[in-house]
Amino acid sequence: LSNTASQIVVSAPAGPPSSTNVTVTTAGGTSNPLVYFYLLAPTVNDLSTHLGPATGGNTVSVFGSNLTLAGAVNFGGNPATALTVVSDSQLTVTAPAGSGTVVVTVTTPGGTSTAATGNPYYTYLGAPVLTGLTPSHGSDLGGDAVVLGGSNLTYTDAVTFGGVPASFSAISDTQVVATSPGGAPGTVNVVAHTPAGNSNALPYVYDPS
């Protein structure tokens, strides 16, 4: 408790989520009431994506409750930017840079969320890298199995040959097997994509049938 002629600093007692009147009583009487609000702590139940690039910069929606008065969103120890309140149950933010798997928390005047409920976890991914294609050529009719070797490929969500989507299966973090979609005879670029972005391009040659 700290008093001056114009200010009193006190610790608020616990109370249920509601509003209550605050008054000050001195030897001269009791003040007019001012409303004080007890707020529930925010919760984070889910994210629009749980994966993103280590460099950050992507937009992530945060879902939960009691989010209207959000003043900060943190990915682990790193603050997100461009915080926008969509509703009491949804925020959008720009993810900061980071590494590993972190807990996303929201802070309001009611407190800071915890990882006790839902899935507030976010994993940073390294950019995908391709180091080789086996084989590096095939029929222009397509249908050939091509092994893409590289790194950070576990979460591959698209493979393209000259911009044409190919069916594929991510075997491991270092290997993806794709089926060439076919194309005009000549050389095209093969690119793998993950939530961390596009890989570098490697040349693939379509042989005339």
Walk me through this protein's architecture:
This protein is an all-beta fold. The protein folds into three domains: 36 residues, no CATH class; 83 residues, Immunoglobulins (Immunoglobulin-like, Sandwich); 79 residues, Immunoglobulins (Immunoglobulin-like, Sandwich). The chain is 0% helix and 55% strand. The strands form seven sheets. Strands 8, 10, 11, 14, 15 and 16 form a six-stranded mixed sheet that branches. Strands 18, 20, 21, 24, 25 and 26 form a six-stranded mixed sheet that branches. A hairpin with a 2-residue loop joins strand 24 and strand 25. The protein is rod-shaped, with a radius of gyration of 27 Å. It starts with a strand and ends with a strand.
Briefly say what this structure is.
The chain is an all-beta fold.
Beta fraction of the residues? over 45%
Structural class from helices and strands? Answer: mainly beta
* CATH homologous superfamily grouping of the largest domain: Immunoglobulins
Order of helices and strands: EEEEEEEEEEEEEEEEEEEEEEEEEE
Detail the poorly predicted runs. none
Strand tally, please? Answer: 26
- What helical percentage do the residues reach? under 10%
In CATH terms, what is the architecture of the largest domain? Sandwich
Number of helices, where a helix is a run of at least 4 consecutive DSSP H or I residues? 0
Task: Please outline the major beta sheet.
Answer: 6 strands, mixed
Distance N to C terminus: 87 Å
